[in-house]
Amino acid sequence: MREVNPGVYVETGFQGGNVGLILTGEGAVLVDTPMMPWEAREWARMIKRVTNEKIRFVINTDHHTEHSLGNHFFAGTIIGHEMGWKEIVGFSEAYRQRLIDSLQVGDAERDSELKGLTLMPPKLTLTDHLTLYLGEKRIHLLHVGGHATSSIVVHLKREKVLFTGDVVVQGVQPILSQSNSREWLNALNRIRRISFDVLVPGQGEPGDKEMTTTLSEFIRGIRSGARKHYKAGHSKAETYNQLLELIHLFPVIESRRDKVEQQFKAGISQVYEEIKAEKGD
């Protein structure tokens, strides 16, 4: 656990992505939760080592399970975007079962625990922005969209810290398959206009605004390439083959290459369909 500002902590070692802890003197606030039960318990133990404050709120930066599945383990009021609430309450039992199956780790005890997980939607939602006033902390939640319809950022203006969720990632491939790439670029532009010193991405180590530059370049490259190939009458598969070199703007771990390339292909398909819709075809 790293303290990026007095009373503001980040943990980058969990499987689903980064999580944050904000101490206010009037209760602790969590930013996202670990996806795996054993990691959620470890996060709870880590929190107890630095504070006796009870958890008052759990903020989900989007509705994806990497950020919200661990809600199950924390007692605070869950806050998220209204679109995230709609997504989670709309998940079917079949979806939950497929999700649990995809998370199986081959350990009987842990796999059994995964089967008991429930998907917990927010109890408090926002549409555009929301501010929590707790002690001396002013915790500003701003809807930006892009990566997901429910994507929000969490800004601590006085502390100059910004939690972005997966709107910004570091050291891993951005996932475009459920995104709106044009809105994502707009979200990154909005982030660059916010005043902060420390950017905590959804995955990877904290940094600063420069972290947004490569991501914007990546998305713009895919959008311009998809537009070019769509106008030329090329198929999605042809477009993917022509744009594959862009995958190397972010690290590709060799052991995960097949999965990363599948995700990249799904992202190209999504952007291709966006361009098609923008052209009115």
Describe this structure in words.
By secondary structure, this protein is of the alpha/beta class. The protein has 2 domains: 2-207, Metallo-beta-lactamase, Chain A (4-Layer Sandwich), CATH 3.60.15; 216-278, no CATH class. It is 39% helix and 22% strand. The chain has helices spanning 37-50, 65-68, 82-89, 93-103, 108-115, 181-193, 211-231, 236-243, 257-278; strands at residues 2-5, 8-11, 19-23, 28-31, 55-59, 77-81, 124-126, 129-134, 137-143, 152-156, 161-169, 198-203. The strands form 2 sheets. A 7-stranded mixed β-sheet has the order 1-2-3-4-5-6-7. Helix 6 packs antiparallel against helix 7, helix 7 crosses helix 9 (257-278) and helix 8 (236-243) packs across helix 9 (257-278). It starts with a strand and ends with a helix. The model has no long low-confidence stretch (mean pLDDT 95).
Brief sketch in words of this structure:
This protein is an alpha/beta fold and 281 residues long. The chain has helices at residues 37-50, 65-68, 82-89, 93-103, 108-115, 181-193, 211-231, 236-243, 257-278; strands at 2-5, 8-11, 19-23, 28-31, 55-59, 77-81, 124-126, 129-134, 137-143, 152-156, 161-169, 198-203.
Q: Which terms summarize this structure?
A:
single chain; 281 residues; Metallo-beta-lactamase, Chain A; 2 domains; seven-stranded mixed β-sheet; five-stranded mixed β-sheet
